[in-house]
Design goal:
Layout (H helix, E strand, L loop, with lengths): L3 H9 L4 H8 L3 H8 L7 H11 L3 H4 L17
């Protein structure tokens, strides 16, 4: 996983780790461990981060370099 991207996108938005941690409802230390790769990020936090930053989980973990989120799909009934 491309953990450098977490720090990069946070700094691009001029945010502190504590501000991102607050958005995730976790402690700053826990978020710091995600950002340095000491701890794996649970998928629910990756989803919240993607929404928070307006991007995709794939971008956050380095599977794509496209920052724009994927278009929302409409499920047909």
């Amino acid at each position: 996983m491309n953990i450098e991207r977490l720090k990069e996108i946070r700094e691009d938005k001029d945010l502190k780790q504590s501000e991102v941690a607050l958005a995730l409802n976790i402690k700053q230390q826990q978020y710091s461990e995600y950002e340095i790769g000491k701890r794996l990020i649970p998928i629910n936090y990756l989803c919240k981060l993607a929404l928070f930053y307006g991007t995709s989980v794939d971008y956050l973990i380095g599977l794509t370099d496209e920052r724009k989120p994927y278009p929302k799909s409409i499920m047909k009934k």
